[in-house]
């Protein structure tokens, strides 16, 4: 759970307890952990008690594998639904999707099945509004 979400819902959560493990973000940087708490997650008028870590993350909350196992969750991306204990919940996206031309200043060869970080710019008048994005190649 994000620190912002915790602060907005502090009165609805149990006491913040210490959490002594390190969590590393997908970017490889350690997260700043505030603690651990128990909350009642409400989905489709049903309540699911969960224990969550409060950390400085961008999203409201990240649902973990423990929740998916405990409540027999199944994600169906084709129908854009998640099933929790047999009940369907419609998935909704936030943010924007876009298609942008990305330009690198020099030729870069990326070996198969590898990743590489290269300096690049988005050309044109439209700019990416998010600070983080994924660039995928197009086939010629």
UniProtKB/TrEMBL annotation:
Gene3D superfamilies: Acid Proteases (2.40.70.10)
Annotated protein name in UniProt: Uncharacterized protein
């Amino acid at each position: 759970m994000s620190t912002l979400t915790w602060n907005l819902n502090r009165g609805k959560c149990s006491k913040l307890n210490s959490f002594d493990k390190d969590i590393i973000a997908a970017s490889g940087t350690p997260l700043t952990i505030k603690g651990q708490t128990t909350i009642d997650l409400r989905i489709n008028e049903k309540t699911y008690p969960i224990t969550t870590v409060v950390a400085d993350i961008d999203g409201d909350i990240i649902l973990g594998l423990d929740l998916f196992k405990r409540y027999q969750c199944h994600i169906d991306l084709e129908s854009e639904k998640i099933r929790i204990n047999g009940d369907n919940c419609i998935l909704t996206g936030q943010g924007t999707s876009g298609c942008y031309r990305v330009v690198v200043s020099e030729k870069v060869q990326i070996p198969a099945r590898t990743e590489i970080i290269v300096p690049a710019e988005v050309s044109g008048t439209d700019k990416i509004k998010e600070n983080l994005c994924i660039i995928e190649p197009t086939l010629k």
